[in-house]
């Protein structure tokens, strides 16, 4: 049975850097739909203290999600050194599709199909899918690609994670400062080499009471258009859910790979917010009886790039493998754990072993 290896990667970080002062003129509202009677500077400062997000990236007004996804895809294809006509599938992970400037989602045609056209691919047997799975969408796209390859349905697949969350946030919600834009992509390929590539994976979907922890809802400002929908997040609920469930899922995936935490060289965890990510890694280590560890095992990009949802993990992967993250590198034949949690609520993870 074939295994799935990454043969190329690429990412796109929008040029617009949005710092804390961008939000100083905002009138924030609370969850009771009332104005918050504090200076915006104080609210922003407290937000940075908790999340560590100092900057984030936004696309320009004339850019779209499929466009930036295509940029990352083109870079990944060039890095892989392949003919794009040889791709069997394109999987595009996203939450909101092709968001318009006024925040309306557009999924028809699919973003994967739009990228195929932008890349100039004429192969009619190159199948295009959108993966709508919350922030874990790119990880789930990789798991799907692996299953397609193992089933013999494909030999080469492009997996993209791209999002423009700056167009989906409530202008009056403090949580808007978490979200960002960006794209990342990889090309995966079948190999007959044993014990390499994706060697274990897990996915969990808790869709009962957890369903509304992240959802679309109207603005916190009651005077705004009630038909306009934005990201609404129950931060405390998500934090508690993630800490209770994500570390166990990560540990189970490591064990399914026949490994121990000492065998894992890097953990690429979805960049949700720094406080939560630190806590998840701490909890994972404690499951192995470890209280002191080298924090470089779990690189962080959220401080400068924000939470770009499905783009965060492939972006980190590309930056590290290209030597663009100071102090970070992958080991030859090393094991990397990639994991995410997000809307649904959904959790997933896979262990990847470099050839």
Automatic annotation (TrEMBL):
Residues 255-353 form the Beta-ketoacyl-[acyl-carrier-protein] synthase III C-terminal domain. One of its GO terms (molecular function) is 3-oxoacyl-[acyl-carrier-protein] synthase activity. It comes from the Bacteria. Residues 129-202 form the Beta-ketoacyl-[acyl-carrier-protein] synthase III N-terminal domain. InterPro entries: ACP_syn_III_C (IPR013747), ACP_syn_III_N (IPR013751), Thiolase-like (IPR016039). The keyword Acyltransferase applies. GO terms for biological process: fatty acid biosynthetic process; secondary metabolite biosynthetic process. Keywords: Acyltransferase, Transferase. This is 3-oxoacyl-[acyl-carrier-protein] synthase 3. It comes from Bergeyella zoohelcum ATCC 43767.
